[in-house]
Specification:
Rossmann fold, 15 helices, 3 domains, DNA binding, 434 Repressor (Amino-terminal Domain), 6-stranded mixed beta sheet, LacI family DNA-binding transcriptional regulator, alpha/beta, 351 residues, 5-stranded parallel beta sheet, transcription, transcription regulation
């Protein structure tokens, strides 16, 4: 009769470093460094090696060393400024520490001056020395791409949030299909205006954000393809700032008296709403924007805004957590990464 109580010690005696290396997909030298708690191995690899060792019964009593129990440190790098959706997202992350702790993670939020790629690149590299993974809103620029790839070489995975970046080794993007979002905004404005000649305009944060550029392209193509009688009279950049957006809207209204619609591609919606109310055109100019926040909610309620396209901030945070959890467990990130669902909010379906 087999003594089942002796099976676990037997597995511990038989399991070798080479077995752990094969199961975890790393070299025997890396396994040795991890088991002897020597530095120089990235956090995700440490987790994979220790889990393999535990599964093979190599670790006594099935316990993991203290380094395996150490929470993963996530850093969220968000633009500073008056974008109320981003500010709301930052507060949500800070208030979700208990939820993060249930996944053995903790998070910090750093804000930087937006639209400065050199500063973003520097902050990514600085933050990468202090955390195990980074989530950030990307700017399309060679310096930022280089920083992302340097972090990948150092074993610090990065996830882009809301706005992606091309040709880098970031591990995932959490955000909308922004070209589709721009087309959706255009379709809504055109349907609200109706079948008549009209003029519409766009206000972007900055086209340095890939998200804003893709939204612009989707918007323009929709009108060229489907509504040629509606003229898109211009694109202005307000840098997601309420005061800038207020000034840009006043200029648009002065130069284009027949303006019938405005698409706010980025943040700072309250500045646009204030300008529309000042000239008494909040009821006849169709106003569509992004990000459900206290200001856009209030403008939906009073009729200044007609529709808001948004992504659920809680769901976006959970997507980030799922991605890093999968990475830590050695699963492919593609299994965890999902494109955020675009939510269309009007006054009648406000949550």
């Amino acid at each position: 009769m087999t003594d089942t109580n002796s099976e676990a010690p037997r597995r511990r005696r038989l399991a070798r470093i080479d077995d752990i290396a094969r199961l975890s997909g790393v070299s025997a030298a890396t396994v040795d460094r991890v088991l002897n708690q020597r530095p120089g191995v990235r956090a995700v690899t440490v987790q994979r090696v220790l889990q393999a060792a535990n599964e093979l019964g190599y670790l006594m009593d099935g316990t993991l060393p203290a380094q395996a129990l150490k929470p993963w440190r996530l850093g969220f790098l968000l633009p500073a400024g008056t974008n109320r959706f981003l500010n709301m997202l930052g507060r949500l992350i800070i208030s979700s520490q208990d939820q993060l702790a249930s996944f053995n993670m903790r998070a910090r939020v750093d804000h930087i001056e937006s639209l400065r790629p050199d500063l973003l690149a520097q902050e990514l590299l600085r933050l990468g020395r202090e955390v195990d993974g980074i989530v950030f809103m990307a700017i399309e620029h060679p310096a930022v791409r280089e920083a992302v790839d340097v972090l990948a070489d150092r074993g610090v995975p990065t996830v882009t949030l809301i706005s992606d970046i091309a040709n880098t080794r970031r591990i995932a993007y959490v955000g909308l299909d922004n070209r589709a979002a721009g087309r959706t905004a255009g379709y809504l404005i055109a349907r609200f205006i109706g079948n008549r000649p009209a003029q519409v305009a766009m206000i972007a944060g900055s086209l340095s954000y890939r998200a804003h550029e893709e939204r612009e392209m989707g918007f323009l193509h929709l009108f060229r393809e489907e509504f040629p009688d509606i003229e898109v009279v211009g694109l202005r950049e307000g840098h997601d700032d309420e005061a800038n957006n207020y000034r840009q809207t006043k200029l648009l209204l002065a130069r284009h008296p027949r303006l019938a619609g405005i698409y706010n591609i980025g943040g700072g919606a309250d500045g646009i709403g204030r300008a529309l109310r000042e000239v008494g055109r909040q009821r006849d100019v169709v106003f569509v924007g992004h990000g459900l926040s206290p200001d856009t909610r209030a403008m939906l309620l009073d009729g200044t805004m007609d529709a808001v396209l948004t992504q659920n901030p809680q769901a976006s945070l959970m997507d980030c957590i799922t991605i890093f959890s999968s990475l830590r467990a050695g699963r492919t990130v593609q299994e965890a990464a999902m494109r955020a669902r675009t939510e269309l909010i009007v006054r009648e379906n406000l949550p």
